Amino acid sequence: MKGWSVRATLSALALLVATGANAAPDDRILSSQVRLSNSLVERLQTTPGATAVVSPAGVAAAMALLDLGTDDRFRKAAQRVLGFDNAVDAASDFANLRQEMSSLERASGDGSFSFANAAILDPKLRLQPDLLSSMRATGAEVSQKSLSDPSTIRDINGWVAAKTKNRIPSILDSATNDTNLVILNALYFKSDWATAFEKQNTRPANFQELDGRQSSVPMMHGKVTTAFRSNPQFAAVDLRYKSNRFSLVIVTSRAKPASMRDFAGVSNWLTGENFNETEVDLRMPRFTLRQGNELLPALDAAGLKQVRFDSGAFSRLSPDRIDMSSVVQKVFLAVNEQGTEAAAATAITTRTASIRVQDKLVVDKPFIFALRDKVSGLVLMSGYVGSIPAEATQ
Questions:
Q1: Who contacts 187 (Cβ-Cβ below 8 Å, separation ≥6)?
Q2: Domains along the chain?
Q3: What is the pTM of this model?
Q4: Which helix (H) or strand (E) segment is 37 a member of?
Q5: Strand duo 113-121 + 141-144: pairing
Q6: How far apart are CA 294 and CA 304, in angstroms?
Q7: Pairing of strands 214-230, 367-373
Q8: CA gyration radius for the chain?
Q9: pLDDT digit string (tens) for 66-111?
Q10: Are 8 and 247 spatial neighbours (Cβ–Cβ below 8 Å)?
């Protein structure tokens, strides 16, 4: 691998990044996405060192569409949960997400990137005037269908599969009588590295997990001229794709394996700032990850629970009493010698409420990663990889 010249275009993951009040809107969106990622990843880890991968962009996009039907108290709480901690800018930045949703759908004409939103409302749900037109104005696909009908669930899963090129074949399991709204986001990304790794240089190597165990993984190897940052404890690269809008930031520890919280001091590295171009002898694993998570408990723990049971939380959506019942997300991520493929689908459902210089970097230990869009500030996918799934070695 030669000829890498990288500027951070795509980053994000997990940890607190402070920004000033005068930061540009896309910088503030990126900052909020990093906060959201950190919040979700830490709460999703069942044990220290467990792999947890999320799509902050998918959660934010679905919540931004739901925001059109929420009251002020829910909206402010949701903004905080999504990482918008600056009250002065939060309202405009949150509204800007809806504009970004529309522009992202037009970001790629060659099929390498897509970002789509949809809302399916049950006819039995009474709606406030202009809600449907407000949702459609964001570019979302909006329809009214019976959500207790199995064929509607098949249509939803078919939409998700089509938008993610079948990497996420389904998002909902079955129809329920009390479900009255489903909000969807689906994203897909695929791009080759600007310079590919040579497959013949990939060799089996050990990956050290947080608990001391080691597993054999296919380790890619190449010498690259790329954006690099390091200190005595950590090192990072920002790898460019052929689609110049995107890049992948990977940060790992130099010595012993690090936990998610150990990365807190270098969280701002995931923005791609203060990297320097240099030659790097890079080794990193080829891997494929698939995960599915119910995110509502994590969002509740972050502050949503206090408001989502309020009688008027969704009063701008419907005069009926409704409640969020789930926030399901499924993700797919494959990193290999040629490039990266990523897909994610997010579904928010509501129901009738019941009341309530040359350097060396070997990524052979847990690492955090970030796939971000520099233009919009949205984080397509991020997480902590504590182990490499066995399927990646096949």
A1: 55, 57, 58, 113, 114, 115, 116, 163, 164, 342, 343, 344, 345, 380
A2: 25-191+288-352 (3.30.497.10), 192-286+358-393 (2.30.39.10)
A3: 0.86
A4: helix 25-44
A5: parallel
A6: 14
A7: unpaired
A8: 21
A9: 999 999 999 999 999 998 877 667 667 766 767 766 677 666 555 6
A10: yes
**Residue 30 is encoded by which pair of tokens?**
């990126």
Residue 231 tokens read as 């200190």
User: What is the phi-psi region of residue 383: left when phi exceeds 0, alpha when psi lies from -120 to 50, beta otherwise?
Assistant: left
Is residue 271 a contact partner of residue 11, using CB atoms and an 8 Å limit? Answer: yes
Q: Is 146 exposed, middle or buried (0-12, 13-18, 19+ CB in 10 A)?
A: middle
How many residues comprise the chain? Answer: 394
CB 265 within 8 A of CB 28: no
Tokens of 45: 């880890």
Structure tokens, 162: 């089509």
Using left for φ > 0, alpha for ψ between -120 and 50, and beta otherwise, residue 144 falls in beta
Type of residue numbered 220: M
